[in-house]
Design a protein that fits this description.
- Helices cover 61% and strands 1% of the residues.
- The protein has a two-stranded antiparallel ribbon.
- The chain has 342 residues and is mainly alpha-helical.
- It holds the Pfam family GASH.
Length: 342
């Protein structure tokens, strides 16, 4: 995780040992609080609030500010938030980084840690760099740790499980408690088969999609669409086949459908796809997209028809296609979760 002693110098140029010790305790406390709730919206809201504050002139929402302020006051009773907004942001970023950097890649569809990391990768990766070098160093470190966990979890979650033999000899001699022993013997192999089947289904769906060269959104062959439309369609339609966080292999499959075209700004991309924007807007007219525009920056712009935020520089169609894959992928994976919990 990020070194707290280094990053407290964002807001305190010459910190004492006691000052750093207290901030370490604050970061630990906040990290625990961030993962208390497994509600998807609550988790993404944390990232949305931090990401918004990372923008020039941005600030954290009141609910997140109050949470961080309360954690600081437990260690420093004289603390007041006025004039200390940068400290609150830095501590929130350090706490989020502690959660993400300390997590191990998961086999599941998406864990609390994966969700926070995926959202952070999307939100911070769509922002311009901060002009202030110290806060930018922390932002970049958090972004890098988030991306790293996502890629490691993407690979880990696709490892096939070993299907062990079912050994019935453990309960054959005693019929009194045969049922629970039978269940214990059968459940692990069945679970492994079910998990492997999910991954097999994902690979088959991706294979058929890659071979078809057909866009169900545009109702036309991808190769006949304009390059910008084809790039976005490839990204969002590939995302619909995902059962886990997208891995590098999925990116390369999507990029097979991206053709040569000059780089575009987000505004230029929206202008180039023209009336086709409605296809993507209607497909991803989603409450989460509108609620979390920092996280779903591309889909939010397609929904609104304007580039309210996002990078000012021109990006290649490859970059836009991958962005579409990631944003739609997160929405799709979360949509597979029962009760929107992780």
């Amino acid at each position: 995780m990020a070194d707290v002693a280094t990053h407290v110098r964002i807001f305190e140029p010459d910190p004492s040992d006691d000052f750093v010790t207290k901030r370490l305790a604050i970061v630990d406390d906040l990290a625990d609080k961030f993962i208390e709730n497994n509600d998807v919206d609550a988790l993404i809201s944390i990232v949305q609030g931090i990401a918004n504050a990372c923008l020039k002139g941005g600030s954290m929402p009141e609910s997140l500010t109050v949470l961080v302020e309360a954690a600081v006051r437990e260690q420093s009773t004289s603390f007041v938030r006025t004039g200390n907004e940068l400290q609150l942001l830095a501590l929130a970023m350090l706490a989020l980084d502690k959660v993400i950097a300390g997590a191990e890649p998961d086999r599941s569809s998406i864990s609390i840690y994966d969700l926070l990391a995926f959202s952070t990768w999307l939100a911070l990766g769509f922002q311009p760099v901060r002009a202030e070098p110290k806060i930018e160093a922390l932002r970049s470190e958090l972004l890098g740790n988030a991306r790293s966990l996502c890629l490691r979890s993407a690979a880990r979650s696709r490892e096939r499980l070993v299907v062990d033999d079912i050994k019935l000899d453990k309960f054959a001699q005693d019929s009194a408690d045969a049922a629970p022993k039978l269940t214990a013997a059968i459940n692990p192999p069945i679970h492994a088969l079910q998990e492997n089947a999910i991954l097999d289904r994902e690979e088959i769906d991706f294979l058929w999609w890659a071979l078809s060269d057909y866009s169900t959104l545009a109702e036309a062959r991808l190769s006949t669409l304009s390059p910008p439309v084809a790039a976005l369609a490839a990204g969002v339609e590939a995302a619909e086949k995902l059962r886990r966080i997208p891995a590098e292999a999925h990116k390369h499959i999507v990029l097979r459908h991206v053709r040569q075209h000059p780089p575009l700004t987000l505004s230029g991309l929206i202008e180039n796809i023209g009336a086709n924007r409605e296809i993507f807007a209607s497909t991803y007219e989603n409450a989460s997209v509108r609620k979390f525009p920092e996280v779903f920056g591309l889909l939010a712009a397609l929904d609104q028809g304007q580039a309210a935020k996002g990078p000012a520089e021109k990006l290649s169609l490859e970059d836009w296609a991958v962005r579409a894959l990631l944003e739609a992928g997160l929405l799709h994976i979360v949509g597979l979760l029962p009760g929107a919990k992780v």
